[in-house]
Every structure is written in C-alpha cells, then in structure tokens.
C-alpha cells in the first residue's frame, strides 16, 4: 500500500510559514510520502497551475494520485453545477490524477418530506454523468463519507448502488464515521466493497454528558465531541480498519488527513511512521 498526504493536512504549516503549493509538494516529498492529494486548486487559471504542479512533482519524484473538490448536485442550477464539476475533472486530467473525489450535497432541499432518499434519486443521473465524463480520461470518481448528510455508511451504500456505475466508488474516510457516532470498523466493513481510496485520520473523543472541552470543535450527530489528532493517538481503530480493507482485497492507497492542533510537521511525521508500522 502506498501512503500519501492531502494538501489539506498542511493548513497549519502554510499559515505558519507562508509556503505556497509548490513548497507543500517539496515538504511532502521531504517527509517521505509516496504521493500527494490536491484539494481544489486556487486561482483563476487552474488548468495551467495543474500543468505546472504535474511537472514540479515529476521533477521531485512525487506521485500525484488524487484530486478532491466540493460539489452540490442539489444546486438550483444543476446544469451549471455539472459543468463546473466537469471542468474540475479537466483540472484533474492535467494534474495526472487517477482518482477524483467530489461532494454530492451540503444540505437537503427545503421541501416537505424531502429526505436523503429523495436526494439520492435526484442526484443519481448527474453523478453518473460526471463519472462517465471522467472515465473517458481514465479517472475514477468517488464520494467521501462526510458532510453529515452522507456520513452514515448505509446512506453511502444506497447512493453508490443507485448510481450503479463501475467508475464510481467510495472514498472511505475511517474517521468521519465518528461524526455520525458510528463505529469506524462497522462503517469500514460496509465500505470495503466499494472503496477506491482511503483517508486515514484520527480523533480524540469526549462524551456529550459534559460541556465541550477546550480545543474541541466538532459536535457529533449524537451530541458527543471530537477533535483531530495524530494518527495512532486517538480512538479510531486504524489498524483494525486497514485489516478489514485488506481482507476485502483492497491494496490501494491511503491518504493522511490531519486536522488537529498539534504541531503540523510533528503530526505528519508521526502519522506516517504509525501507518508504515501497521500496513
């Protein structure tokens, strides 16, 4: 299994040092990651930036594996949203990314009795359309279990089965299940049949039977509290989840996402060391 890192994981490092996206690539290579995952490229000339990043990463020997962006397939102007997502797939192509992750929605429609099942029906044809568009470039599309609406594993499985496209899969984030108070190993078991990429992260956990502790920022759907931390320091059973995937035949990539308050580089170094020890 290859271990990579999301540019998202360097947010604190960027704020502290002023590093640009090219310097982030250099740091990822220096730390020993196999590949990098880019989050929605900045600026108004994303295509040319993608080409420059592809060349830079080739020069330093860092693979570009995945590209992740936001998307809302419940948008009022759905045709414009599909157009935007297809453009981002063009960006992914110019990066040389093999996997393209997009969101599906941020909130449900404010209509009587509108629920996630109706959302799946409405979104399915457009998700399939962009996946087929990406397939022409040899890029696999996927959606991640995050965003509170589609974090629960049963909802994600229903979505993937509805789209029913072999080029569309699941970006399994083993930590995000805690946002819905679901055991990560339970969610990983369901996701293992559809996983095309894995995000590894860890959380500290506090019960909601007391006020939120200082330093915590996320309240789960069940009213508990979590905050990001170094992989291996929290409650996410990372080793168990990886073994569940292995038993299902997954031998793909693992991308580290770090979002805790610990020193950024310390956290990434130790998260990478932990993953190397258990895979």
Compact description:
This protein has 279 residues and is an alpha/beta fold.
Could you walk me through the main structural features you see in this protein, from its secondary elements to its overall organization?
β6, α7 (184-191) and β7 (195-200) form a beta-alpha-beta unit. α3 (46-60) packs parallel to α4, α4 (78-95) crosses α5 and α5 (116-135) packs across α6 (153-163). The protein is built from nine helices and eleven strands. It has one domain (3-278): Divalent-metal-dependent TIM barrel enzymes (TIM Barrel), CATH 3.20.20. The strands form two sheets. It has an eight-stranded parallel beta barrel, surrounded by six helices. The mean pLDDT is 97. The chain is of the alpha/beta class.
Q: Regions with pLDDT < 50 over 5+ consecutive residues?
A: none
Number of domains: 1
Count of helices? 9
Largest sheet: 8 strands, parallel, barrel
CATH C-level class is: Alpha Beta
Major sheet strand order? 1-2-3-4-5-6-7-11
Percent range for β-strand residues = 15-25%
- CATH superfamily, by name, is Divalent-metal-dependent TIM barrel enzymes
The helix fraction, in percent, is 40-55%
General form: globular
Number of DSSP strand runs? 11
Radius of gyration in whole Å, from Cα?
18 Å
Describe how the helices and strands are arranged:
Blueprint: E1 3-6, H1 11-17, H2 21-31, E2 35-39, H3 46-60, E3 63-69, H4 78-95, E4 99-102, H5 116-135, E5 140-144, H6 153-163, E6 168-173, H7 184-191, E7 195-200, E8 202-206, E9 218-219, E10 225-229, H8 238-247, E11 254-256, H9 264-278
Parallel strand pairs: 1-2, 1-11, 2-3, 3-4, 4-5, 5-6, 6-7, 7-11
Antiparallel strand pairs: 8-10, 9-10
């Amino acid at each position: 299994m290859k271990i990579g890192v999301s540019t998202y994981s360097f947010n604190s490092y960027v704020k502290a040092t002023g590093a640009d996206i090219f310097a982030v690539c250099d740091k990822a290579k220096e730390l020993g990651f196999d590949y990098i995952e880019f989050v929605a490229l900045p600026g108004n000339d994303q295509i040319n930036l993608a080409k420059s990043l592809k060349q830079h990463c080739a020069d330093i020997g860092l693979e570009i594996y995945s590209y992740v962006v936001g998307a809302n397939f419940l948008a009022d102007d759905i045709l414009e949203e599909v157009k935007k997502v297809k453009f981002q797939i063009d960006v992914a192509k110019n990066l040389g990314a093999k996997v393209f992750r997009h969101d599906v929605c941020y909130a449900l429609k404010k209509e009587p009795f509108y629920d996630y099942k109706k959302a799946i029906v409405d979104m399915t044809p457009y998700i399939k359309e962009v996946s087929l568009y990406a397939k022409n470039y040899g890029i696999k599309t996927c959606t991640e279990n995050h965003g509170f609406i589609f974090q629960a594993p049963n909802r994600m499985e229903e979505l993937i089965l509805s789209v029913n496209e072999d080029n569309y899969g699941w970006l399994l984030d083993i930590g995000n299940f805690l946002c819905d108070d679901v055991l990560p190993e339970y969610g990983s078991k369901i996701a293992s049949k559809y996983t095309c990429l894995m995000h590894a992260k860890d959380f500290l956990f506090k019960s909601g039977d007391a006020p939120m502790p200082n330093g915590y920022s996320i309240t789960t759907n069940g009213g508990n509290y979590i905050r990001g931390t170094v992989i291996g320091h929290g409650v996410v059973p990372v080793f168990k989840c990886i073994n569940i995937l292995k038993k299902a035949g997954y031998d793909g990539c693992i991308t580290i996402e770090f979002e805790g308050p610990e020193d950024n580089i310390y956290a990434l170094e130790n998260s990478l060391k932990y993953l190397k020890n258990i895979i």
